[in-house]
Structure formats: structure tokens, C-alpha cells
Amino acid sequence: MSWDTIFSIANGWALLMWIVLIALPRTQLVQTFVFYAGVGLLCFAYVLTMGLVLGDFVDPAPVGEGGGGGTFTSIAGVRALFASDGGIVIGWIHYLAFDLFAGIWIAKDADHKHFSRLVQAPVLLLTFMAGPAGLLLWFLIRERRARASAGPRRVN
After folding, report:
1. What is the C-alpha separation between 99 and 31, in angstroms, rounded?
2. What band does 146 get if pLDDT is binned at 50, 70 and 90?
3. How many CB atoms neighbour CB 44 within 10 A?
4. pTM of the prediction?
5. What would the mean pLDDT of 63-85 be, rounded to a whole number?
6. Are 100 and 17 in contact (CB under 8 A)?
7. C-alpha distances in angstroms, 127 versus 23, 48, 68?
């Protein structure tokens, strides 16, 4: 299986999970499905693709050309990690999994605080497209209601 195929499958699966999260009634079954079938499978795909790259099963020089030297301690090291199709796919699946996880948390938090689905949908779409921006927007939107539901502070 090529890296393009793995990339396309992961992208399509994540998109389907986002559609389910945003469009379907958010029952316990739907939430559980999106969590395990969405986030869980993306995490599994991430671990599997890491094994493929580290095991050198797909690309002859998967992490940086000629042995790489990829690390997380410098820009050059991270560039080396993403210098191959395998590295890019691994990074992209990482984003897909964590953005979907953030989306599930936002949806559950919004439901718990009784925000309408019309308020939730743009936040979830932004989280799908640009994860941290959507999460930041949700923090700003939820703040007043979160404080109100927490009640008065006690000082010890």
C-alpha cells in the first residue's frame, strides 16, 4: 500500500467521523462510535505507520534521505522527520487524531453547557480545518457559561 493511499484513507475516515460528529444526533452510541472508530483507529493507524517507517517496510529511506538525522529538538531535525512521504503521513495522522479528539471534547462540553448545535457547528468546522484555532474559539465562547455554571468561588 502506498503512502498516498494511506493518506487518502486516513483523510476520508477523519472526514466521515467529523460529518458524523457535526451532523448526526449526538447520542451516547454516536459519541462512542466517533471516539473509538474515529480517534481510536486514527491512533492505531499512527502507531502502525510509525512502525512502517521505523521498520523501513515501505520507503527505502523513510526519514530524511540517507539516514535522516531527524529529531524534535531543532527545525532542521523536524524537517528531516518530514522529508519523506512516510513522515508527512505520520504527521498528518497525528493532526487528524488530535483535532478529532478536541472536536469530541468540544461537542461534549457544548452539549453539557446547553449550547445549540448552530453555535457548535462553526466551532467544530474550524476545529476540523485548523484545530488549535477552533479550540481557542471554543474557550472564548464557553467562558461565561462555564463560570456561571461553576457558581461562586469559595476562598479558604
Report:
1. 15
2. confident
3. 12
4. 0.82
5. 71
6. yes
7. 15, 25, 32
Report the distance separating Cα 34 and Cα 21, nearest Å. 7
Distance CA 97, CA 38 (A): 8
Under a CB-based contact definition with an 8 Å cutoff, are residues 53 and 86 in contact? yes
CA-to-CA separations, 22 to 12, 84, 108, 126, in angstroms, rounded:
15, 33, 11, 12
pLDDT at residue 123 is higher than 50: yes
Amino acid at 39: V
| Residue among 38, 41, 68 at smallest CA distance from 53 | 68
Better pLDDT: 49 or 122: 122
Closest CA to 79 of 65, 90, 94, 64: 64
Domain boundaries, the chain: 3-146
Query: Could you tell me if 89 and 10 are in contact, meaning their C-beta atoms sit under 8 angstroms apart?
Result: yes
Please provide the size of the chain in residues: 156
Ordered alpha helix ranges (H), the chain: 3-23, 28-33, 41-54, 75-81, 85-112, 117-129, 131-150
